[in-house]
């Protein structure tokens, strides 16, 4: 008998029919003799619909009240799923975030989990019930309802798995696993049997979108084995675990990409120690995420600074910079839109210094200009023209033999 | 400065536009220098939609999970209304039932309020905030979410008014007050300036539908003055208070009526002491509400029993009686459908023994056959043919001069 935490996202519970299907997946595990805790998101488009209503009332709705509003979404799902489990003859009980003991910071919209009092869940598991928990939500020490922000349901599932010392945490989603790259664009994309926490973290941060980075980090810290798998298909998914336990150790395990990137270049910044931090503090205060950052010196004792942003943030970035021009003391700003980011990820890179070079060579041979570069121990990111994005991914996928099984062992 | 509890029902908060309108009504009271607590129901058809989803999953959904599901309805309304209040420049905060301290029995679907810990509401009033509370819901001692059943939001409002020792509890609805009879049927129907708790209780129980009987009873027990008024029109509504404080004391204050009534007659019951209680205990166990009951002796040492039910319960009643025929030992059952109940209500009746006789005379003069009669201290109910219902109400409304103001003083 194992203790399994299952998480089903919004697409998997998007209709009453789909909820019944999820109930069957849950019952399978229960009938195999396992204890099961299920974490669910709001149904399909529910969250969007609630957000629209709020925006009809206020362009800047109170964050506390947004949490009050949005947490109803998962509450609907847990009750319907529990009804479906009971209807199928299984004992089951639902819990909201506060009932499940998800204690968070006193922050609305993006709270971190402080502690989990899993006693109520444990008591119900002991009573042989399937426990259904609302993802994404918790409450603070004053009984205020909070939410965990984007990808919160993944985090809920992993955190509960850690608190219960679960044997496994299965993340059910609308894809069958983690792929070497996005199969909607690259037909040679192959589902990975396993991937390390760190690789998944880089892929998640790079927009692969299957699993939220916070959840992966939490799983890594608590050594919870994750499996990403399909809520519709029965095939095995991708396990996410420590490097050491993995079967194949590829140099490059996956390729992530993202379009709608804009490069912003700030020319003629004074070469003072504080000018960089001033710029990025100012942008952060205005909640603008900056990705790749490149700094270059000029002959005239000034600095040119380039960074990449999501194109949708361009106007906001320009406003912030212009509004702070006196303090930032730059010369002028240039922007270049229509760009994309292409990144290769793999733990094997650490011990293979030539990987970045190989990547640039592939790009050059394919006739693709690399406009920005950023590297970490297990990834290399490049910025290219949006129109060449898919071509770049195809060439890299081919060059690093990602379509084939485990040929490139370290 | 007064402390006012306002309650807005589902129709009043049926859309984002209507919620903004409600916000304006709330703000008016606040800007008059009053402390305001607002109790709201779920938006319009929300509850129905949630019920449909549940019924798609199970014909007999778990009551606990139904409470989990339905309570999301009010939670959506409180957050949206609070956003609207904040958007209009007022400080406001929303509370779910459990946050507002509504402590109930451990019963799902129809829990009674045990106690109210109003400290969280009081603290926010002290901080000069408008407090918005979810009606209809509470929680038990184990932190389980419960609901108060039909008319629960009215009860929430009155209970909070009592706990806070409020100066007034205003029930906003889609009519402008309590009428002498239903204005959709009788064009002479007149809005009452005031009505006593007891009269309102009789009217509410008779299907007048404006205010839930439980709420009226709670208000009477705690002497909370109620006012029923329109959420759209600005005119004064109807106050509900103790008899002694009322301006006009009419003999008959209102006429209630209800169609789709069926009379069931059980012939040839043994004249034993227990046979009546056995029948009604059996029906009650099967959750069938019986209204008027008439018993008549026959020559043959047996009893004939008639009672009225809602027509929709007819099949269930017949099944229950037939299934228990051995124990109940009756001869045969007759039913007559297509009936209606017409009742006159007024505190003045207690000291005017001729009122029932006058009612029967009016019916006779109008050519309407009275098939059943039941009386209490402040009401007389009759059962007539459904086709004659409106004619009966018109004649009674005219005869008791309900269309005119305060002519019939005691």
Secondary structure tally: strands of chain A: 18
CATH class of the domain at 3-174 in chain A: Alpha Beta
Low-confidence stretches of chain A: 406-410
Q: Which two chains share the most extensive interface? A: A-B, 36 and 36 residues
CA gyration radius of chain A, whole angstroms: 23 Å
Cα distance spanning the termini of chain A: 36 Å
How helix-rich are the residues of chain A, as a percent range?
25-40%
Which terms summarize this structure?
homodimer, 410 residues, alpha/beta, Carbamate kinase, 8-stranded mixed β-sheet, Aspartokinase (chains A, B), nucleotide-binding (chains A, B), lysine biosynthesis (chains A, B)
Topology at a glance:
Two copies of one chain form a homodimer.
Chain A: E1 3-8, H1 16-31, E2 35-40, H2 46-57, H3 63-87, E3 92-95, E4 102-104, E5 113-116, H4 119-126, E6 130-134, E7 137-139, E8 145-147, H5 152-163, E9 168-173, E10 194-196, H6 197-205, H7 213-222, E11 226-230, E12 238-241, E13 254-270, H8 275-285, E14 293-297, E15 302-310, H9 314-323, H10 325-328, E16 332-345, H11 355-365, E17 372-376, E18 379-385, H12 389-399
Parallel strand pairs in A: 1-2, 1-9, 2-6, 3-6, 9-11, 10-12
Antiparallel strand pairs in A: 4-5, 7-8, 11-12, 13-15, 13-16, 14-15, 16-18, 17-18
Helix pairs in contact in A: 1-3, 2-3, 5-7, 6-7
Catalytic activity (chains A, B): L-aspartate + ATP = 4-phospho-L-aspartate + ADP
Function (chains A, B): Catalyzes the phosphorylation of the beta-carboxyl group of aspartic acid with ATP to yield 4-phospho-L-aspartate, which is involved in the branched biosynthetic pathway leading to the biosynthesis of amino acids threonine, isoleucine and methionine.
EC number (chains A, B): 2.7.2.4
């Amino acid at each position: 008998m194992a203790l399994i935490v299952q998480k089903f996202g919004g697409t998997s519970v998007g209709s009453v029919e789909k909820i019944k299907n999820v109930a069957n997946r849950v019952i399978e595990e229960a009938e195999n003799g396992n204890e099961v805790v299920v974490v669910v998101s709001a149904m399909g488009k529910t969250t969007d619909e609630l957000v629209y209503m709020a925006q009809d009332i206020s362009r800047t709705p109170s964050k506390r009240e947004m949490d009050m509003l949005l947490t109803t979404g998962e509450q609907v799902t847990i009750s319907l799923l529990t009804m479906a489990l009971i209807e199928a003859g299984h004992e089951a009980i639902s819990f909201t975030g506060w009932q499940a003991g998800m204690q968070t910071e006193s922050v609305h919209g993006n709270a971190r989990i402080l502690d989990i009092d899993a006693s109520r869940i444990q008591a119900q598991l002991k009573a042989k019930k399937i426990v259904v928990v609302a993802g994404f939500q918790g409450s603070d020490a004053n009984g205020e309802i909070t939410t965990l922000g984007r990808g919160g349901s993944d985090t809920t599932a992993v955190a509960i798995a850690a608190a219960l010392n679960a044997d496994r945490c299965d993340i059910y989603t609308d894809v069958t696993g983690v792929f070497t790259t996005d199969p909607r664009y690259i037909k040679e994309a192959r589902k990975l049997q396993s991937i390390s926490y760190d690789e998944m973290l880089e892929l998640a941060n790079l927009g692969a979108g299957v699993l939220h980075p916070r959840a992966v980090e939490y799983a890594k810290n608590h050594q919870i084995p994750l499996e990403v798998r399909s809520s519709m298909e029965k095939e095995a998914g991708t396990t996410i675990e420590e490097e050491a336990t993995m079967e194949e150790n590829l140099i490059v395990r996956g390729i992530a990409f993202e379009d709608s990137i804009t490069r912003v270049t700030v020319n003629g910044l004074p070469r003072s120690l504080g000018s960089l931090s001033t710029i990025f503090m100012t942008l952060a205060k205005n909640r603008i995420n900056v990705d790749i950052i490149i700094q270059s010196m000029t002959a005239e004792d000034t600095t040119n600074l380039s960074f990449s942003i999501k194109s949708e943030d361009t106007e906001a970035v320009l406003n912030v910079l212009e509004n702070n021009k006196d303090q930032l003391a730059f010369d002028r700003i240039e922007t270049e839109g229509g760009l994309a980011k292409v990144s290769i990820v793999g733990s094997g890179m650490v011990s293979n210094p030539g990987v970045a070079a190989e990547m640039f060579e592939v790009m050059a041979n394919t006739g693709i200009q690399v406009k920005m570069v950023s590297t970490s121990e297990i990834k290399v990111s490049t910025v290219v023209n949006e129109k060449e994005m898919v071509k770049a991914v195809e060439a890299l996928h081919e060059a690093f033999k990602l379509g084939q099984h485990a040929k490139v062992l370290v």
